[in-house]
Amino acid sequence: MLSCGGRIHRQAAEGDDITILTVCAGGLSVEDLSPFAESLHRRWGTAVSAVERRREEDREAVAALGARAMHMEFQDAIYRTGGEGVALYASEEAIFGPVHRFEYELIERVAQALREAIPAEAEVIVPLGAGGHVDHRLTRRAAERLPQRLVYYEDFPYAADYGEVEYALAGADWESETVPISEPDFRSKVDAVALYRSQISTFWSHLEEMRTALREFALKTGGHGTLAERYWRMR
Asked: CA 137 → CA 51, 100, 205, distances in Å?
């Protein structure tokens, strides 16, 4: 939504059938919560209902853009555990660190689930992994096992940080596509993002700050006063 919302709104209005698939949307039990996860729940104001709250917000936001939401049952990084129930990602640093060695098999399970869920003829747009969030990188690695030629989106707001997109692009030959978005498409995108009420505080202190950040990034991407989103393909 943060990265592709303008394109989604435009293509849905043109009649395209769009599904936004969230890989790490699985449930949890109270026993799964690390102190780090508990601290995030307090900030979000969700208690143990965080997963269902986020699904509800996602369904509302996706519908507002004219698309449909699909949620897989793989857990968010902050809930995943290894041996003896120990949290694999128990800090802010951990979720932006290496993919845990216990999760190499998870990548293949996600890839198989994606193969079963995504039609062969679909255009597939996946996270580039800018910023290094472990779930974005895990999803990218799983998607790269699909037969389709992928399109990659720039993970906002991480993509706004200096050098993060370039770092995510390292090691391959890429071509970019800058997609201009109209003011109505942009406003629809921003309004949809605002529907993720519990999650805004992750990045911004209030909605107006979010709206300003999105506009500034879209204008920087488009250049010359044009609002845009940018996508990448491997050559």
From this structure: 20, 12, 26
